[in-house]
Specification:
There is one protein chain. With 291 residues, the chain is an alpha/beta fold. The chain is 40% helix and 18% strand. It has helices at residues 17-29, 51-69, 108-115, 137-143, 159-173, 203-222, 226-236, 242-254, 268-276; strands at 3-4, 43-46, 74-79, 90-91, 96-99, 102-105, 121-122, 148-153, 179-184, 189-190, 261-267, 283-290. Strands 2, 3, 4, 7, 8, 9, 10, 11 and 12 form a nine-stranded mixed sheet that branches. A three-stranded mixed sheet has the order 1-5-6, with helices on one face. β5 (96-99) and β6 form a beta hairpin.
Amino acid sequence: MQIRRPVVAGQFYPATAAECKMEVEECLASGALPAELPEKIVGGIVPHAGWTFSGQLAALVFAAIKKQNTKVDTFCIFGAAHRYFGSQPAIYDSGAWQTPLGNIDIDEDLAQAILKTGSVVADANAHRGEHSIEVQVPFIQYLFPNARILPIVTPLENEAIELGTAVGEIISQMKDKKIVCIGSTDLTHYGPNYGFEPAGQGYDAFKWASEVNDRQFIDLALKLEPQKMLDTAARNYNACGAGAAAAVAAAAKKLGKTKGFLLAHTNSNAIMVEKFSSSSADSVGYAAIVF
């Protein structure tokens, strides 16, 4: 059986089981869910930075799913393509993934069903160095210990919408299995290290990145507009995992959802100021959304 070993444990999140569990619990305890949530959650959008910066927002999404759904058999996780340069989404179709909390099985039956649609290719190597899915898995293991996962690296291409629609159709036909889709993306990468400073530097620039550039993508996600999500990301550089987020929006739309719920929105510079009383020349946006 093939097992994917963790590649960012000890960097993006703790490398030992005890520390990992403790930090998951801290992330879950650090944010409060809003009063209004969907009656049943079919999908969510999570950030994928180190847990120090984005763990609280990711935890909000998984906590909301736990509150509204109680049981989830499989999480279909669409990830960003930071190191994969193929145009077609790549699925990790068999075996298991390992984290400090142990192994979690791949839903091989769901993988085969999606492969039959022709919307993905089976390519475990596409996942070898990708962190955007890995950092979500310990939250799933902690809150849903019997769940399986299905990781899919999803580039910023129109194939992402085709994939999400196909997955939504498959889920709608599976009456005996509870499946939730997750899309992993950060938002605007602003500052000199990212080569993106259209509004200059300083407080007003970060405000523009968050309140204007990020919000363009967030608002389209909340309206379930996957094609426009891809378009704005390509034009305005406001999501590194736009394909993953668009796939979730397409799946949620196929499953009858008409709007999303924004749980939280922040950025790395604001977190640095809050947690460390220091600022940076760069900032990355994060949002937590459920459908």
